[in-house]
Amino acid sequence: MNSSSLRRIFSTLSTPAGEVCSRLRNAGHEAYVVGGAVRDLVRRVKPDDYDLATSATPEQVKRLFRRVVPTGIEHGTVTVLTSDESLEVTTFRVESAYTDGRHPDSVQFVTTIEEDLARRDFTINGMALDPVQERFLDPFGGEADLQTGTIRAIGNPDERFAEDALRLLRAVRFATQLQFHIEPDTWEALTRASHTLQRVSYERTRDELNKILASERPTVGFRLMSRGGLLQVILPELAAGVGIEQRGDHRFDVFEHSILTCESAPKDNMTVRLAALLHDIAKPATLSVDADGNRTFYRHDQESADQAQSLLRRLRYPNTVIDQVTHLIRQHMFAYTPDWTDAAVRRFLARVGLQNVENLFALRQADSYAQRGSRVDFRTLLTFRDRITEILANDHALNRKDLAVNGHDLATIDIPPGPAMGTVIDHLFETVLDDPKQNTRPQLLKIARTFYDSRLKGANHHPTDTS
Ligand code: ATP
Ligand code: MG
After folding, report:
1. How far is the CA of 297 from the centre of ligand 1 (A)?
2. Which end of the chain is more exposed for a tag (fewer CB within 10 A), N or C?
3. pLDDT given for residue 297 in this prediction
4. What does the domain layout of the chain look like in residue ranges?
5. Per-residue pLDDT tens for 78-115?
6. 400-419 burial by CB neighbour count: b if 16+ within 10 A, else e?
7. Domain 245-394 belongs to what topology?
8. 29: CA distance to ligand 1 center in Å?
């Protein structure tokens, strides 16, 4: 690297990172910026966060700084908090294999930065910057690989993937995020080792998958995973869509349609991206071909929601994410036409939930675009949105909680608590969805009385065993 590039890099490096390195240096230790931050600085991108590597032990680091959190002390990592940044500081180390797919079997501290860099996965992740002496260390040619857009394992790729199979997915993740190619020897080793990805814990897999999902071009990552044999291991349900052709307006097979829907969804909305990726996941399982050769995917929305649920559970996604994603998938086939009555629009809103409408529309737009990968006329969807805005302006009850009466009110007219009361409330809600003018206290109490007396009174809603 020439001196003007170096000067540029050291002038853009964050002040806290430089200060923490100086303090370590002044105390007689070595300290370097490593990992993603170096990659970013060399590419002229502003790093999100800084990782530092040092010859100091975690204990020594703790003593040098006022605010230190022991985030991963058994692996040699502490987090140093400065006024405006937190920095991970890790003692030079090497690690043994990840036999359990979760943690290295052991880590061993080493004395030189060169040994520390050599245990890292790819050349572009194996560079270091010393901000105090303004030195750039690049023992494996990371800078050249950054320039040519190459993901290349450090050392022997078969060995590197055998030590930690997560690196298989990391290779794809970096290729996707940076839109780089994977160097042929590394790629060959990756395909040979693809089945070993099953050893990696679901949590680590999920975290890499999320980075692919949040990137500009997730399709790049999913196609690489499919070609490299990784998809079959971590998302066999999605891999099953390869070659499943669709009918009508669709131009792509189920797999290509799914990943293109995902890519077309807003990149900063993980819920919609996941729903987009999985919205047709059960199409391979629900495909049937009739006598005339027509292809149908009966109930694929419901089946896909169920399959997505078990898939997301397996990958240890949080329950809130699973609930939102499966709800969107379950609702994704709505078919609005301008002849829908106001009552039909209100029923739709009650079913979908106001807070999910924007996400569902985003999913629909991505889904429609991904049928052919070309511009789509969204006028009907836009008129639907206007209808919804109109209806909301009239402040209708779209939730049982918006009814003018509650369980307490119903109890005052002697409707007993329990399942019967639930049935009465359901009935009132249906009534109000049909005709919002009914949503007044006297009116609902009257309706409740009649409904209860004619339909429920005397019926046994609590089957109790008296024998
Ligand atoms: P980003 O923070 O954008 O995800 P990063 O390169 O900083 O990218 P991290 O997962 O934060 O990635 O890891 C920091 C550094 O640690 C990497 O650049 C790499 O040098 C090293 N590293 C991380 N995980 C592994 C691994 N599984 N095998 C080898 N080295 C790794
Ligand atoms: Mg990082």
Report:
1. 42
2. C
3. 86
4. 3-145, 149-234, 245-394, 400-456
5. 999 988 889 999 999 998 888 887 888 888 999 999 99
6. eeebbbeeeebeeeebeeee
7. Hypothetical protein af1432 (1.10.3210)
8. 23
